[in-house]
Here is the input.
Amino acid sequence: MPEKQSMDIHVPNAARVYDYSLGGSHNFEADRQAAEFMFTLVPSTKKWVRLLRMFLHDAAQELSAQGFTHFLDLASGLPTVEHIHSTLPDAKVIYVDNDPVVVSYGMEILGNSPNVRFLEADIRDIDSVLASPVIPEVFGSNRHVAIGLNGVTVFLSDEEIQRIMQATYDWAAPGSKMWITWETQAAGAMTPQWGQFLGMFEQMGSPMHLVPEDKARELVKPWQPDARGFRPITDWLNLNGYISESDREGVGLEFYGVYVEKP
Here is the structure.
């Protein structure tokens, strides 16, 4: 999730690069060029990005099956292929992102969907997000919600994650749940290509902070992981063999997913 930016279409943006990586069309030439260069550095990029979107799709379906009808998706990026509203057309959904171009495109994609709104806000200021009048406009007084942090913790500092966890926990009703993805690598591992890849996100204003699993377990508090705990996303999706050793790019890449809950 980048810092708040002006609408400069000549500067690549992480959300639009993500859209292009998924095969979407809501991106600009600068985004496409950045993405293609990333693919040369880390050829498995498309597979990892696709994995994140598949987990979002799966999480939305699972939580809907558990009875959730209200979804707050934090740092959503573009609501394109297999996002929540298309997976669950009857759900009430609020997407949140801080980039004005992403929000403008997002509203265009959503059109007149009556149950879906797009809030332009920075989740680092989570108190302002939760105090937005958009939330009661869509959710009413219902705070029994499913909250998404999908593909975003990697762009947040430990302190920012802790603030988001505490604020959403205090705001949400008991029984609420959150799904979260975490990106990690082997401690101390580095290659020239991986270094350049990280550098590109730094230049886009979206530096990446890969979090070891043991630290992630602490950062989710006071939310509590459900009985299934932290698991590689490939395990959640029963995709054994989808990620090969070469896809780990010599630095031990792994993407985890977890469902946490407020008792």
